Amino acid sequence: MELLTPSIGLIFWTALVFLILIFILGKFAWKPILNMVNERETRIEDALNEAKKARDEMKLLTVRNEEIMQEAREQRDIMLKEARDIRDRTIEESKDLAREEAAKIIEMAKVSIDNEKAAVMADIKAQVAEFSMGMAEKVLHKELENKDEQRNYVNSLIDNIKLN
To answer: Is the pTM of this model over 0.90?
Structure first.
């Protein structure tokens, strides 16, 4: 039973050793241990503050990146709109120029056709006159003796004929 009921001497010496141990630990170990714990706590707190700062900076960078992306999209849209406007304007100008050129070509063709028509009509009149004169000369050879009078008479008859 001695193990279960300690004697006063054992309690005294255990208490004395315990107090000496606490004194030695308090004098030499507690301050460095507490300093190390405080330093660790400070480092952890600083690391948490740095992490929070980094997180805030990342949020700020993300917001800024979104703003830059939005600006880039807006500039792209503006550039695309300008390109479409330039394309449409160029197409419209090309169409107008083509219409003008077509109108000029048509007008020149009409003038050319009119000139050709007039030349053909004059040639036809001349051929008809020659042919008529040849026929009339044969028919009326005996009745009219002067060729110049005969030619003038046929030309006046031809001039009175209207051809389209």
So the answer is: no
